[in-house]
Amino acid sequence: MLWFLPGSGLAMTVMALAFLGPEGSAAQRWTVIVALFAYILFNGIGIQAVVWLIGPEILPLSVRGPATSLATVTLWGVDLLIAVTALTAIQAIGRSGTFFVYALMNVACIVFVAAKVPETRGRSLESIERALHRGGSFRKALERS
Q1: What stretches of 46-137 show up as alpha helix (H) in DSSP?
Q2: How many Cβ atoms sit within 10 Å of the Cβ of residue 71?
Q3: 0.85 exceeded by the pTM?
Q4: Residue 1 and residue 109: Cα distance in Å, rounded?
Q5: 76-129, pLDDT tens digit by residue?
Q6: Phi first, then psi: what are they for 21, rounded to 5°?
Q7: Which has the closest alpha carbon to 138: 60, 63, 40?
Q8: Alpha carbon distance 83, 77 (integer Å)
Q9: What is the DSSP letter of 118?
């Protein structure tokens, strides 16, 4: 996630900057198209894939199914919320402002991931579950195991 989230934020920033340029120019259109495709790539590989990768790794077996379902519904619900409010945001703060806000959301996500999401690479599901049962900070409990 920490490799691809900055790419998502950068793509949103490039798109916001493109909308500050001359309206309707070929350079603006191509910049927006390339930035949008870059965002889709980085976001799809990064944060969108997390629901399918990290959730099943860090959730205890007793709640893994329902919790993964809740994570999926949350992901799609937030995607829907962004889609439903995007045009209103564009009307209220403009295209550049909207995409700068989206870029800031990516920055907030990077900070959250860096601070709260534990590295699970090289850990067995059993050691992850033991860390969850210890209570307190999951990240610290996982680092101790």
Answers
A1: 47-58, 64-116, 125-133
A2: 17
A3: no
A4: 9
A5: 999 999 999 999 999 999 999 999 999 999 999 999 888 877 777 777 777 777
A6: -80, -175
A7: 60
A8: 10
A9: P
